[in-house]
Amino acid sequence: MKRWVLFPVLALACVAAQADFYRWVDDKGEIHYSDLLPPANIKQFEKIKAAGGKPGEVPLPYVLQQAVKNFPVTVYLAECGDPCTRARELLAKRGIPYTEMDATDPETQKELRQLTGGALEVPVIKIGPDTLRGFEEGRWNTALDAAGYPQTAMIPPRPPTKPVKPAAAAQPVAPEPPAEASQ
Fold this sequence. Notes:
Largest sheet: 4 strands, mixed
Strand content: 15-25%
Number of strands: 7
Distance between the termini: 64 Å
Structural class: alpha+beta
Order of helices and strands: HEEEHEHEHEEH
Oligomer: single chain
Number of helices: 5
Shape: elongated
Radius of gyration: 21 Å
């Protein structure tokens, strides 16, 4: 008899785990989370997937979500040889979700000139409001540490994507792992 009572409870729990949740702030400044739509007087709310992210995609750990939210990483790269390769490897080793911008694109070059004060050089990393020109592993690690990014990868690596339009906000993704050295 206990099995028949437990089965509906487990079935409901599975359905709830696939549900969407809503987050909103009321007029008193209190944050609310619910599986029901917010009251009609709430105009701004956020829909949250319970499983997080796209199907089959590992959700970001909370510490990484906060770093990405507060200090998104954008990297301006081209085929610049060793510095660009080492920059990608560092981001992969640390599992940093980032947006990669193609520095050979004319629109991206405009953005890059604004960030660097007119120079067209790569690699350049933008971590939140801060911009670092050139690749120097120690400086990049210090800046990523200060932004709250973990020192080792917390998620499976994903290849970076290049946005269709450089000025458009792109979803950051984690980089590919560094290539294994063959002997």
